[in-house]
Amino acid sequence: MKKILLITLFFVQNLPFGYAQSSKLTLKANQVSSFYQEITQAKLIIPITDAKDPEEKALLDAVKNYWKICPYKTISRKDFDELQTKHEAPSPKTFYLVKETYERLKQRKKDWAYTKYYISKQNHWVEEQDEPFIEFKLPLKTVNRVPTELPVAYLFGLMIKHFNNEVLLMKNEEAYANISGRKKLLKLNFKHSLKSYANKTLLVSKNELENYMINLPEDKKDVEKQLARFIKSIRKKTKIKPANIKIVNEADIKLAIAKADANTLIYTGYTIYNTQDATMLRRIDPNKGARPFHWVLASTIVVVVVVIATIATGIL
After folding, report:
1. Rounded to the nearest 5°, which phi and psi values hold at 220?
2. How many CA atoms lie within 13 A of 76 on its CB side?
3. 79: part of which helix (H) or strand (E)?
4. How far apart, in whole angstroms, are the C-alpha atoms of residue 129 and residue 163?
5. Which of the residues 33, 115, 205, 266 has the least number of beta carbons within 10 Å of its own beta carbon?
6. pTM (whole model) above 0.90
7. What are the pLDDT digits (tens) for 136-195?
8. How far apart are CA 250 and CA 151, in angstroms?
């Protein structure tokens, strides 16, 4: 008699959470109160290499215009580097606004390499430390898996507004703790329907197209074709009228952030933001379900391996 054993193994890789920026994913519930109390009574330190550099000047302008939580000061990059080498214990009276780039070991993930700014008492490699932090991830372009930074100065106003808003959310510790955690955040805090925003204008930077195409090989990166698919995907998932989805340049987005127009939304880093206070309305990954099956497979959606082992008594 033959005995047949059928074994089906499902290997599911986590979908990259991409650029979702909420501090509810980087702070534990029991850290919220102390983080809020400390940062509101601390000084924010910002390392600067060259204040005349357009990007660093834009960062300082954004901090000046939108950071309302605590006093801040800049220090030279040289002084900051020396500070990092001392490895001193973090002080509750000092927080840092730091830019870092990370690379993941699993390079097939969409965010296998990314750049972000974070605010924390820790002044280096915050993801490897125990100190809580708030973060804002920024777009990258990858060519043959080599990350290249894109100009992101136009997003600094949105970033600092977002940091400001995230800290203010911590004032109500009980309400904040109730939606702490990724699953609850996605279920309760993000708007699953944006129908009420259908008549608003959604601004999308051309840089976001690079994020959309990040897993495609170079010979598949037909900009015109992929742009049409990109817009179609956003329209389908947001219900925003096609005429209201605008692919714009960096200056348009920077101006919208400054105006804080209630009728304008911004899409960046897989997330839709309200331009008034940079609150996150919803995370949208246009890559999800947008690729042919073989690309879905290569893009860490689901890998299904079926192993059939036949154990038989006797040889046929």
Report:
1. -105, 0
2. 3
3. helix 77-86
4. 20
5. 33
6. no
7. 888 777 666 677 777 889 999 999 999 998 899 888 777 676 655 555 555 544 555 667
8. 9
